[in-house]
Write a structure and sequence with these properties.
The protein is about 35% helix and about 20% strand. By secondary structure, it is α+β, with helices and mostly antiparallel strands.
Length: about 80
């Protein structure tokens, strides 16, 4: 699997078109996984309770803001 980092404004268009994010790049240097990562449900649930997984851009933004950070880019799986 090959991924590419996309700027937030461009990524928003891809998200609106239904593309799933692999991960969210956060300004505090801690990436947060997204639905396209492909990991198992129990592992993702564990990450979600620790702020390491988000189902959507809005959820990721809320988690990042709570940490005093912002989303700086979004990783997508290359087709």
């Amino acid at each position: 699997m090959i991924t590419s980092l996309v700027e937030v404004e461009v990524a928003k268009k891809r998200l609106a078109a239904g593309e799933q994010p692999y991960a969210f790049e956060i300004s505090d240097q801690i990436s947060m996984l997204g639905p396209a990562c492909g990991f198992g449900a129990s592992y993702l649930h564990n990450l979600q309770t620790k702020g390491g997984y988000a189902e959507s851009f809005d959820e990721a933004s809320q988690i990042a803001t709570a940490r005093g950070a912002i989303i700086t880019g979004i990783w997508f799986v290359k087709p």
